[in-house]
Amino acid sequence: MRAHPETYSHPREEVVNFRAGDGKPLNLIRVRGTRAPVKGPVVLVHGSGVRANIFRAPIPRTLVDTLVADGYDVWLENWRASIDVAPNEWTLDQAALHDHPKAIETIVQRTGWNEVKAVVHCQGSTSFILSAVAGLLPQVKLIISNAVALHPVMSRATYLKLREFIPLLSRWTSYLNPQWGLGPEGLLAQVITLMARATHHECDNTVCKLVSVIYGLGHPTLWSHENLNPQTHDWVKHEFARVPLSFFRQMIESLRAGHTVPVEGYRELPRDVALRRPQTDARFVFMAGRNNRCFLAESQRRAYEALSRYRRGYHSLHIVPGYGHLDVFMGKNAPWDVFPLIQAELNRPAQERSP
């Protein structure tokens, strides 16, 4: 039976500020119910060019609501890719080394729990898992990854688009911004916005059109319109903003290599870290929408197979029919189609996770 949304109302929220390892100011949003959490902390990590709020779409029951009601101490991480953080030309390496370890350290200190679970999405997933396999997140024992982990796979057409256009765009701008759909800034923004309007006729939301142009190929790219209620489709206008070309350059290199490639030269993150035996005992759950037009579901299948070589029968893979990239969290029916899967993996007894 579908729960009434009022069952999940009135959570307690607290913004917890912390500094990344390189001093960048970031924050966590802690969400708890009226009763004390009994299942420990779980952190939710957003993707690129959005913010922690992406897990709180205007649907009857969000994943945050679900986990709070289930007894978890929920933490939403705003890492350096967040649109609530000052714009910066971030890389996955910076987040893996500086952001996620400090976020987890903060959660452990504030809660007193020495184990944390995580639900991570897109480039929040890639950077978080990069940190985990490098041995930088020893307190994290379960990671549920959506869309992509360390083996990105895009369609050939999407890869070629990135390879050809990102170097060209780099001559005029250091970022792309779906907010141009609400008011273009400069000639380049006007041209890209006009192109989006001319080539995307699936809706009248220009921010939605620009999201599809920026993040891949599809009409739309990150979700199916039939999965979104009207309120959510309007809400996304203010949930997507600047994403730096530094990210796309790293992704092009990673797509070419077939795995995530660190680019900053940090000794903690050697270039082949994604190919080595993971320095963590965390169990990984890889999840992907079958209709994802940004990163193909094959991305998660490859990640699952790569890690299963070291611990057979330990990790899990779920390909979710009828869903794409972000509608697994924002879809109007996600509370009944997707969230039970996430809950089941979070609540799976520890003895079942033994290798």
UniProtKB/TrEMBL annotation:
Keywords associated with the record: FAD, Flavoprotein, Oxidoreductase
An MF annotation (GO) of this entry: oxidoreductase activity
Cofactor: FAD
SUPFAM superfamilies, per database record: alpha/beta-Hydrolases
PANTHER family: CHOLESTEROL OXIDASE, FAD-DEPENDENT OXIDOREDUCTASE 2 FAD BINDING DOMAIN-CONTAINING PROTEIN
Family: Belongs to the GMC oxidoreductase family.
Protein name: Esterase
Source organism of the structure: Cystobacter ferrugineus
